[in-house]
Design goal:
With 507 residues, the protein is of the alpha+beta class. Helix content is 42%, strand content 15%.
Length: 507
Amino acid sequence: MKSTKRIINQINMVQDEASDVLVLGKRDNLRQLRSGMFEIGDKIEGDVRRFGLEKNELEQPCTPEDKIIPTSYGNESSTSVINIPSRSIEDKSKSEEESEFDESESDESDVMYDIDKKERKSGPFKLSDGDRTEIESVYAKLKKDVMWRLSSRRFVEEELYSLGKKLEFEHTAHSFIIDTDDEIIKQHFTELELEEIDNASVPEVPDLAQDIIEYLNKFINIDSAKKVRSIISEQDDRFNINYDSSIHHDLDYIRFALYALTREIENGGLVHPNLESWYNCHIWNTIVDQGFADIKGTLVVRGESTCIATATRKNRKRVVTQRRKMGRRGDWILRLTGNGDRDEYGIGEVGKCWLDRFGTKFLGETSLKQPKALKDMLVKLMKRINWDKELCSKVQTVGITHSGLMMTVMHMDNPHGYVCRIRRGEFLEVPDKEENLSALLVILAAILNIKIAVRETIKVVQPKMQSESIFKQAGRLKRPRNSDEIPACFTTPKKFKEITSRKVGKY
């Protein structure tokens, strides 16, 4: 009976401890403490042996000073009974106040026990010594005569390397990617240097065709769905008997997108919060997928598809005994179709709501995840053209980020040296009211301009004309490694477990 009462008292004590944990917001620990209550009876004898208590001590009545102490905050929980000397009410209240706001350690004479605790479960993760070694080894292979030298006589690669050494967490600087809109980059470079980086040469892309601009001009200043329907219904043989998808696809795309999104506005679905999949089906499929639909041999692959270029980079040192690593997942990826080596030209991320440009999800995807995937794609394309400097200056990859009804575009290229540069576009918003329908025209024009950039890149990386010398060497020699290759992206820091010590009081 005494043992049973002791167990009941211990359960009550655990519940008191659990309520304190709940106040501190540690809900996971609360569930583990409650689950541990049912195992107390089986573990008491083991705890007695662990702390060197005598059996007759176990049979003594439980006092308020007896505490059940959790010995693990990991996946498995266990409890231990430790007799803690009582303290005055004044000391106790003071201790409770300190424990709520102060994580400092108590006296050295207090009991120590280890807690297996996974630090930073969802990232970001601090750079380890191994990560910093990787950065140093990559930088050591760079040739100074190939680096990008600014008018200030500073080298961009050197500055990114020195900046990266000061950072505790992963940044695009560790992958030699420069983004002049990044706050850390802005603080490191001067205004003149940032302007020079922005104004460096970009891949040449043709302008929109004049017939497309003229058709878009028809819808300028429209402020009602009726006007849109009226213009769309006008007789135009380009959409009827004279329609040719190779010539009139983009005109038909504008017509289709305006009609589909006008219906969405009329139905009132855009003014309500929606799920990410809803935006994909009702908005971005119409704007993005249909816009890219006529690029022969390519496909917008949706459904959290993994980036092949990123997977290739992650597995470049793989041996047969290791499992293959997956590439980064994107909400959609623009890639070649077929069963061969499928090149990728763009990636998109979708979010169900828009907070502002400093939202956690938006910053995480546009400042690190998407740039690294774009660089992986770009490096793979440049390798395909054998690192020819003239051709490499003409290729680029594109990224689109959607958050709610907001959209922004980024381009990545290699202007000079070993550096990949991000060029960001303005923020665009899909209208949710009839009077703002003309704002949709800029978004459709942006998609068509992106498609032109993708087409120009495809032309560059397609196999060049064959020659007699190529025929003679075919199948004999492996393509030599180019010493001016752009280094691959930095490996993302891994999760790790850290053993910490916590003191629980005297006994």
